[in-house]
Amino acid sequence: MTAAARPSEGKVVVVLCALFLVACLIAAVALAARPELRRAVRDAVGRPAGLVAPHDAGPDRGPQTLEGVLSRQLVTGMITGPQYRHAMASIASRDAERHPLDVPPDADPPEPA
């Protein structure tokens, strides 16, 4: 490297001082938040995770679709994986018969310029 391509020593010192200042600020914020973090962890340890409900959860409703019912049965062990796949294949074939996929016609190719 030539001397013209190297940063001056003054610029290097300024950058290092700025990095040191940022590190000090991060450390100060971490130390200030430490008691609140400990309190939150201590409070969370006392509660079982399964009893915490989501904020937007309403009354417990069952699945709204057949796919949802099948998924719940699979998860609870009421049906096996092959039974689930067979039922989903039947639903897909019924859906394909009731609502066939309409493919748009091919567009005319553009005219050469």
From TrEMBL:
Superkingdom of origin organism: Bacteria
Record's compositionally biased regions (Pro residues): 102-113
Residue span of region Disordered: 89-113
Protein name, per record: Uncharacterized protein
Protein's organism: Actinoplanes nipponensis
